[in-house]
Amino acid sequence: MSPRWQSLIRLLGVQASWTYERMSGIGLAHAAAPLLRDLFRDHSPERRRAAVARSAEYFNSHPYLAGVAVGAVVKAEYEDVPSLTISRLRTALSGPLGALGDQLIWAGEVPALMGLSLASVPLLGWWAVPVLLVIHNVLRLRLTLWGLDLGLREGLKVGAALEQSWLPRVAGLAQRLAAFAVGFGTIVVAGWLLDGRSDATRLGVAGIAVAGLLLLLSVATRTRVTGIRYGLVLIGLSLLVIGGLQ
Amino acid sequence: MSIALIAALLLWGTFVAVDLVTVPQGLFSRPLVSATVANAMAGDVSAGLLAGVVLELYALEVMPIGASRYPDWGPAAMAAGATAALVPGAGRIGVAGLIALPLALVGGWSMLVHRRRTARAITGMLDRVAAGDARAVWHLQREGLWRDTLRGVVLSTLGVVMIGVAGLVPWTSIEHLGLLDVAVLGGGLAAALGGAIRSAGSGARRRWLAVGAAAGLVVVLWR
């Protein structure tokens, strides 16, 4: 297997030793290792060790875009760029790769896909699940490979290349699509779940949802109330009522 | 529950726990996926799909962004999906929530413990890492994977025990179990919409959210 593919496979587990102190620094070094090994085959082991040590320093990015940094750092090592410049490159990439990835994936693609999957359940049934998995994983692999190749091609110029790429534009679009899909999917699936239920049940669900929304969004309570906490309180209360009615 | 089914659920629960952060982060840990597959293993897809859809509403509120704290829905939804099949008719959604919500919180807490242990392991090998020892880096990654796998095994075992306990409850003899459905579904809708409104901010995304909700309403009324 070529070092590029080895690196891609390792990028799938880039967060295996994620910590608050180093974030995904260790994972980045692990993903860069096959490329560095190939690169420094004819050099002294000291140079390779220094490159591995630099790769393992603190680094934060979205996991799907970590390949951009791996590729850029490896290219910079190949071009014998001074170590201080490589460290600066990592620091400079940390923020944008984290922010862009969060916008594109966690606030964009994932909620968009989940919202559309929820909306498709009444139509597709369980087929919505494999469709969702195939679409996400194909996109994810392509994005990771694209990032790795971009980094390997651009090296120190990867920041500018990233800025001029499709990524920032699509990140904005993905977030809008996500907002639409979550709104659409939630209402469609609510209609599906309440289909055939009594008016009292529908009214009860609507009342609980509105009360929850007020608690989740009100300035006074929104820092303490989360959906899961609200759900747990509701479960506790309903168990008490059910027990009392027995 | 047969031994083969227990083993399959444990394996699936562990896989989805590891999928959340460690590898491969392929959305297998989403409740919609985890609950549906778990229920399919038990020979019925519909109850798991129902449980997965409702739990997905809760999961949509918080995305698993790096340093933030978030519940681990994978093993929780596995247990909820398999349990949902044990409850006939009314109460299915509610029991899924009863099983999954606490277990998801425990899963989120276990992630913090896992990260603290990983930090300790890195501190112990810091000299070798700083010296550029690629084997130390590989060792830390492998250890992190195993530690997360162990976390998944513990959570899945807890989930399977909860399925076993749920199997002992005479659900059909409990009256008004539908109230639990109302509570869990209402809470899920509030979580999904509340999370969406909060993350949409005040600009174009909030407008897109409103358009999406309106389009959804049209579809529901049309059906």
Q: Which key terms come to mind for this protein?
A:
heterodimer, A: 246 residues, mainly alpha, 2 domains, elongated, B: 223 residues, 9 helices, 77% helix, 0% strand
Largest sheet of chain B: none
Distance between the termini of chain B: 39 Å
Q: What is the H-and-E element order of chain B?
A: HHHHHHHHH
Helical/strand content category of chain B: mainly alpha
Percent helix range of chain B = over 70%
The parts of chain B where pLDDT drops under 50 for at least 5 residues are: none
Q: What's the tally of helices of chain A?
A: 10
Strand tally of chain A: 0
Residue stretches of chain A low in confidence (pLDDT < 50, at least 5 long) are none
Secondary structure tally, helices of chain B:
9
For the sheet with most strands of chain A, the description reads: none
- Rounded mean pLDDT score of chain A: 92
Oligomeric status: heterodimer
In a few lines, what is going on in this structure?
The complex is a heterodimer of chains A (246) and B (223). Chain A has 246 residues and is mainly α. Chain A has helices at residues 3-11, 25-39, 45-55, 66-78, 83-124, 128-154, 158-164, 167-194, 199-217, 227-245.
